[in-house]
Structures are given as C-alpha cells and as structure tokens.
C-alpha cells in the first residue's frame, strides 16, 4: 500500500508504528466505544492498513515497532488468518465494524482493551505472550478453540453476548486451549451464553470471582475434562444455568465462596468424576437445582447443610474430611435428599470422613442412621427385627442401651424373687438362694452360677422366669450381632 493513499488518521498510525508510539484519537479519557458511537473519518482506520503494517511495516533503527492505537474505529475485517506477526498489538477503546479473523495466526502479543467488537474468530491462534481482552464488549461469539497461549488470558470486566440473544454456539469458546499461565475472567466478567472450557489445559488458575454467567435453562460453564494447574476460584459467582465440571482435574480445589448457583428444575452443578483438592462453598446461598457429584473425589468437602439443594446425587462421591462443624443430623438430612433413594455408599463415606477426623460418636450416629434407612427397604419381618434391635441396642451403635436393659431386667427379677423365692429342687442339697444371681442365670445364656439348676419357680413366677430367659437370649444375640455390624445386611 502506498503511503499517499492513507487518510490523515491512518498516516498518524503509520508514522507512529516504527517507533512503537501510541496514537490516541479519543476526546477524553472516558471516551469509549458505546453502542451509539458515530465516529467519522477523523478517527477511522481501515483494517487493511493495520494488516499492511503488521505484515510489512518498516522498523526504525533503535526502536521496536509496536501497533498502539487508542479510540479508533477499525473499518473492514482485520484479516490475519495464517499470518505470522512479530509485532505486538495493543488496541484500546477501539470500535470494530467487522469480526477480526485470526484463524491459525501466530502473534507475539494481542491486547484488546475496552474494545467493542461484533465477535472474534481466532481458532487455533498462537500467541507467544498473553491474550488480553479486559473490559471488552463483544456482541457475538469469541472463538478461541484450540488456541495456544504462552502467557495468560485476561478477560476481567469483559461483557460477552447479549441478554436474551440465542446463540447456536458458545459465547466464549476456549475448548482444548493450552494456557501457560492464568485465565482471569473476574471483576464483573459477564457472559450471556455458554462459556466452554472443555478439554482445556490451564497451567495456572482459573478465576471467575464476581463473574456473571447467564444462560437460564441451559449450560453456563461447560468445563468437562478441564485440567487446571492450581485452582478454579469463583467467589461471588452468579451462575444462572448449569455448571458442568465433569471429569475436571483441579488439584488445589474449587472455591465457590458466597457464590449463587441457580438452575431451577435442572442441574445446577454437575461434577461427576471430578478430582479436586477441595470443594469449598463457604457462605454460599442455597443452591437452586440438582447437584450431581457421582464418582467425584475431593480431599476436603466444605459445604454447609443449608447450601445443599432439595435434590442431590452422591453415589460414589468420596472425600477425606468434611466441614464446617455442625450437628451430624443435619448432614444426614442431605443424604436423604438423594434422588437414587437409599445409597449405602453415601453413609459409609460420611462415616469414614468422621472417623478420619477422630469423631467416633458422629461416625456411629451415621451408621445407626444407615441401618434405619435400610430398614425401610426390608420385608415386614426384617423390619420388625430391626425395630427390636434399634430399641434395645441401637443396632449395636448404642451400647449403653444394652446396659440399661440388662440392669432393668436384673433389678426387676431380683426384687421379684427376693419377695417370692422359688422352691429348691432338692432340699438340703441346694446352695443358699441369691435372687441377684438367680436372675443372672436366667438372663445370661452361657454363664451359670448354679442357681437356676437348684431352684424352680411356680405359677406366674415361672412365666416370669421364661420371659427373662427369652429376653436375655434375645438381648444377648442382638448385642453380639450389633457389635459385629452384620445385622439386617441381607
């Protein structure tokens, strides 16, 4: 392109490029490209001029050429498909008439700050440095699938898509990208549609603090098989749709402090087969929608009972520790919300977590609740037997109940037989009668003190003896079975 063909605005950019200078067309620091911006020729630069500079612009000796333009209107499509651009690109507060085409381009640095674009096509893009789009307003899809970014991706404060506008593709496609640093989509980052991170590999962390993801009735974050080097942090995230983290690998954990997850009538959080260091929902509001964690693995689960929704799916979900501290009964209420009904694994897992934390009393309470929940699935005769075990010894997890029952029966028998001693079977040969040990002989099926063989009750007292024998056998059998924890497992 001949320099004589340039407009006055384009000549300023052309002359500043070789020395890395900045051309600012704004009328003030708050002059931003709004929806009604009507910028004329005085601040319009053709995309073909920028392309010519980036692909063949001359450098001035002793300077590094850099494209730095602020407050310009870029007319026409900026087509850098398959191009190798060694010059950093810094465009700020610029208005693009057309979608930039960067398919398979190789760039040194790309920074689009506070720009307004109809979209961005940059599938398989390669960037030696960072990709920056802070506070951008993008009306259409941002396609970055398969991109390789040697630095980080910055999207804080960006606004993607439009409320109510139905896109047939993700509003932000970062599927299968490789990012050697962090992804920052925080500080009010807003996306109206699907944000796709499926199969992405992020060496650092992913940050959605204070972000708004909105796609009511659909998916807002699709991050299946996402791999993150450290953590996914989303404090105060507002998600209006499904968050899908199936198969993700996040070693430092997921932080959803004070987040709001809402997808009424659907799945709000789906993290089946997730592997993470922690799942942290501190002071998070009650989730609206189903939470699915089947087969997920986390080291530390920090979710208050009030945070869980009315429907959960927890079969195969494993964790080592659980928080915050609260009555074990509240966590048991959560297990009762499982849409699969009675899930034995969920009770065993909660038991193991309490034992890992040294809270044996809570672990026994969980096991007792498990037996009671299982009882409802058994035939009537097994349920009757279960009720007896529950009342007597709490399925073996309430040993003090056995002591109370034994002492009560012993006291009743000893007092009764002290008042009405039974007759000796062989006078002169029988040992002195002792009502306490006589009652013990009746109650304990194995131990013998010689009283029962030497004395025999008559009438109603004989029926009392029979009752003590039956209750003693039943109680002893229930205790033994409860201690070994094999009762009602069939």
State the end-to-end CA separation.
Answer: 85 Å
The value of Rg in angstroms is 37 Å
Instruction: Please report which band the strand proportion falls in: under 5%, 5-15%, 15-25%, 25-35%, 35-45% or over 45%.
Output: 25-35%
From the spread of the alpha carbons, the general shape counts as rod-shaped
Q: Average pLDDT value?
A: 90
- Summarize the amount of helix as a percent range: 25-40%
Main sheet properties: 14 strands, parallel
Strand runs, count: 39
- What is the structural class? alpha/beta
The tally of helices reads: 9
* Low-pLDDT segments, ≥5 res: 485-490
Give a written overview of the molecule.
The protein is of the alpha/beta class and 490 residues long. It has nine helices and 39 strands. Strands 1, 3, 6, 9, 13, 17, 21, 25, 28, 30, 31, 33, 35 and 37 form a 14-stranded parallel sheet that branches. Strands 10, 11, 14, 15, 18, 19, 22, 23, 26, 29, 32, 34 and 36 form a 13-stranded parallel sheet that branches. Helix 4 (344-356) packs antiparallel against helix 5 (360-375), helix 5 (360-375) packs antiparallel against helix 6 (380-393) and helix 7 (399-419) packs antiparallel against helix 9 (460-484). The longest helix has 25 residues, at 460-484. It is rod-shaped, with a radius of gyration of 37 Å.
